[in-house]
Amino acid sequence: MAAPGLRLGAERLFEMPAVLERLSRSNSTSQAFAEVLRLPKQQLRKLLYPLQEVERFLAPDRRQDLHLRIFDPSPEDIARADKVFTATEGNRIDYVSSAVRIDHAPDLSRPEVCFIGRSNVGKSSLIKALFSLAPEVEVRVSKKPGHTKKMNFFKVGKHFTVVDMPGYGYRAPEDFVDMVETYLKERRNLKRTFLLVDSVVGIQKTDNIAIEMCEEFALPYVIVLTKIDKSSKGHLLKQVLQIQKFVNTKTQGCFPQLFPVSAVTFSGIHLLRCFIASVTGNLD
Ligand code: GDP
C-alpha cells in the first residue's frame, strides 16, 4: 500500500534528530507542525505513532502481529499532509452541503473519503480534530431525536472531499440505513471508508453491520479506534490485538493496520491526516 518512500518513517524520526531540526525550520512545514516536532521524543512518538506506544508493551515475538510498518510515513510526509489540511487563501477548507439522499449529494469529481460509526463513537470529535487547522470549518452535529440525520460534505481545497455520515445505532430508522448503504454502494469517487470503533468497548453488534456492509460491497475500508486516551495501556493493547486478529482473519477489504486516535490528546490525528492525503493521491 505505502510507497517505498513512506516506509520506516517512525524509525527515521527517532534516529535522525537532524531531520526534525531541518523540518521544523523548513518553509514547507506549518507553524503548528513545527511546534509538534519540538516535543520530547517520547511525547512525539505517542502523538504521531500511537501504535508504536502500544507495541512497546508487547513481547518481541508478538510485535509483528500489529502490522505497524504497512503505513509508516516519514515526518516529511506527515508535514506535507498537515499542509493539505491547513486552510489558507489558496486552500479553502469548507462545509459544502448536506444531503439525505445520494441523488442530493454534491456532484463532485474529487476523490472522497467518508466516516461512519455508531452514535457516540466520537465521530464528530474526530472530524473536528482532523479539521483543527481550518478553524472556520463548522462540523455540524444533528443529534436531537427527531432531527433528520444527514450526510455532511466538506471540501479540502482542490484535493478531496470528506463526508461525515450519520451515526448508526439500534434505533437507526430504515431509511437511514438505506441512505448509508446506498451511498457506500453507489458513490463512485469514494476512495476509502473510515469505520470508527470505540477502543474502550471494542467491536459491537452494530459495528458488525457496518463491517458486513463494507465487505459485501467490496469497499476498501479502515478501522479507526477512537478515544484511546480513555483506556489503560493494558486495556488498549488487549483491544488492539483482538481487533487486529479480527481484521486479519475475518475481513477482506479492511486495511490491515489499525489507526488508534484520540480527539482529546490528538494522538494519531497527524498520521490519519497523512493516510487520508495518501489514499486520495495527495502525497504522490
Ligand atoms: P459522535 O456521536 O460519534 O459524533 O460522538 P461525539 O464526537 O459527539 O463524542 C461522543 C462523546 O465522546 C462526547 O462526550 C465526546 O466528548 C467524547 N469523546 C469523543 N472523542 C473522544 C476522545 O478521543 N477521548 C475522550 N476521552 N472522549 C471523547
Descriptive notes:
With 284 residues, the protein is α/β, with parallel strands linked by helices. Helices cover 38% and strands 14% of the residues. It has eleven helices and seven strands. The protein has helices spanning 9-15, 17-25, 31-37, 41-48, 50-55, 75-84, 123-130, 174-186, 205-216, 233-250, 269-279; strands spanning 93-99, 112-117, 151-156, 160-164, 190-198, 221-226, 259-260. The chain has a seven-stranded mixed beta sheet, with helices on both faces. Helix 9 (205-216) links the parallel strand 5 (190-198) and strand 6. Helix 2 packs antiparallel against helix 3 and helix 6 (75-84) packs across helix 11 (269-279). Bound molecules: guanosine-5'-diphosphate (GDP).
Give the helices and strands, then pairings:
Elements: H1 9-15, H2 17-25, H3 31-37, H4 41-48, H5 50-55, H6 75-84, E1 93-99, E2 112-117, H7 123-130, E3 151-156, E4 160-164, H8 174-186, E5 190-198, H9 205-216, E6 221-226, H10 233-250, E7 259-260, H11 269-279
Parallel strand pairs: 2-4, 2-5, 5-6, 6-7
Antiparallel strand pairs: 1-3, 3-4
The chain binds guanosine-5'-diphosphate (GDP).
